[in-house]
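Hello forum,

I keep getting stuck at the same step: I have a sequence, I want structure tokens, and every attempt I make locally crashes halfway through. Rather than fight my setup again tonight, could one of you with a working pipeline run this one for me? It's a single chain of 173 residues.
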Amino acid sequence: MAPPSDLTEEGRDSDPEDVARAIVLKQLSMAPRSRQQLADKLRQRNCPEDVATRVLDRMEAVGLVDDEAYAQMVVRSKQATRGLAKRALAHELRDKGVADATIDDALGSIDAESERALAEQLAQKTMRRLAGLDPQVQARRLSGVLGRKGYPPSVVYAVVRDAVNDAPEHQRD
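Reply #2:
Ran it on my machine without issues. Output:
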């Protein structure tokens, strides 16, 4: 039996709050979500706004919906797996409906030195794939990778310069 596409198909005997709660719990069982993502899903399933607010408030009160914890988890995860910089992380969290103050708190643990160190690690990894190419090609491609990850131009320039200059194939014998 396929799941209903919205609350109106659930039947007249079902309590809208029970249905909304089930939707939220199912979403949370698949992956962590922000409050805004859950609200959007409830709206998509035609849940009345007042019911969605009550259910989400209750989920927040019991700790199942926590944007602060969600933001911290996204920052740790995306930095470790994708090497994203603060700017890209902030953009991603904003897209998921996390408040700016919460984003600032989550990104507060990232200082300039740790962001540069992460960019250097990413550059070393990328340079292994670019070995043997012309230094200008290496610099251009490495700049693109770091730029897409959200690193500021000053960090990109410094890291690319160091990575290309320190590459073994560009060292004098």
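Residues 75 and 89 are 6 Å apart (CA to CA). If your local run keeps crashing, start a new thread with the error log.
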